[in-house]
Each structure stands twice: as C-alpha cells, then as structure tokens.
Amino acid sequence: MNLTRTTTSITAAAMILLAAACDRDDAQVLTDTSAAGSFGGGSAASEQLEAAPARIQQALRADSTLRAFELEAEAEGSRIVLKGTVRSEQQKALATQIATRDAGGIQVENQIRVEGR
Question: What mean pLDDT is reported for the chain?
Fold first, then answer.
C-alpha cells in the first residue's frame, strides 16, 4: 500500500511539474509574439504610420502652390506633424488639406509657420 501512495505522489508531482512547464512555454510564446510585433512584424497601423510621411511629402511637393516651400511631414508618436514655412494662411490650410487626405486616417498636426514676404 505504501508503494501505491509513493507512486501516486510521484505521479502527482510529475503532473504538477509538467503543467508548470507547459505554462512557462505558453508565457514564452506570448513574450516572443509580442516582441516580434514591436520589432519586425508590426501592425498594419504602425506600418501605415511609417509610410504616411513619405506619401504626404510627395503629395505636398506635387502641388504647384506648395512645391517651393520644401515642407516636411514626420511621424511623431501616433500622428503626423507638418513642419516648414509658407507665405500665407491659405497655403498652410492647403498643406493641412493635402496631408489629411493622404494620411489614411492618421491625425495631422500642422506646425507650419506663416511668414509673409
């Protein structure tokens, strides 16, 4: 009878260790998955945020009114920030309109300065 209790205890201990090992593997898989998302794979939203500044700058340079000002679009946090200098409020508003159109739903913050000449 003593042998049965010992065998049962060893079996129970082995099952506990096995369950703990399985839990550890699951935690490691979750850690590895989240790390891959932040370094390589990325989400669709982060990929869109990375691509948006170049797309917006291209659109701003394609506009004949804004081409001469060499305006910049940069990703900062979760938004696109417009920088540079224009001559009028209308040009600043046009830059906002173009950037918003090409931002794909990403928030646009216009930090363009107006310096009349």
Answer: 78
What whole-number distance in Å separates Cα of residue 89 and Cα of residue 55? 23
Q: Say yes or no: 104 and 58 in one domain.
A: yes
The dihedral over CA atoms of 106, 108, 109, 114, expressed in degrees to the nearest 10, equals: 170
Give residue-wise pLDDT tens across range 3-45. 566 656 676 665 565 555 555 444 433 333 333 344 445 677 7
Residue 17: domain span: 1-42
pLDDT of residue 49: 86
Tell me how many domains the chain contains.
Answer: 2
Residue 98 C-beta-side C-alpha neighbours within 13 Å? 25
Q: Which runs of E-coded beta strand occur in 1-117?
A: 72-76, 79-83, 85-86, 107-110, 113-114
**Are both 50 and 15 inside the same structural domain?**
no
